[in-house]
Amino acid sequence: MLVVLAMVGVVTVIAVFSLGNARNNLQRKNIAREFKVSLERARFDSVKRRVADDNAMARVTINNATSFSLATDLNRNGTIENSDLHQVNFTNSNVRIVGNNLTFPVTIRFDRRGFATATNSLGAEISLNLEICENCTVATANSSNADTISVSPTGTVLMMEGNETLPIFQNPNTSVVSGGSQINPLVTVTQTPLATPTPAQCTVILTLCL
Known about the structure:
Blueprint: H1 2-49, E1 59-64, E2 67-71, E3 85-89, E4 95-99, E5 106-110, E6 116-119, E7 128-134, E8 146-151, E9 157-161
Antiparallel strand pairs: 1-2, 1-5, 2-3, 4-7, 5-6, 7-8, 8-9
């Protein structure tokens, strides 16, 4: 009986420990997915609205290691207001956002083409390779305790296992085309003449009575 009870106790402890780890892993991955989706929503919003002003760009701001916010034009009035902000806070968990040169707050903006720019609180541009960590650091992040979120300069958002080798994205080649190039000189654009209204025709019938 003592041996059986000891075995049951060991199995129970292992089960409880495994359940706790599974719950923590699920929470970490949910936060990482929400962060990834927030970045993709910000990119889509800027491209959809064709923003030109920095202040009008959709953005994700990492406020600190345990919270971030998404700013998009939720009410579709053409501007981003305080009511459009969506806050995500996970202070009560063991999950932290860690990375290199993360002087909070860090803001990731997307322009009209979907290109991404990340700047820290000092105004310096940084490469955005983050670890969504569970009780770990950049040096100790691995596939069992972290998820990597990476954003390329062209706005591609990737989510991988912690400390996984990141792919290298080359900036696309772009060309500048003059507004007057490749235009046939024999083609002209004229204003469409306005139609002249035709007066209504009336028929008059007279009846003479004696």
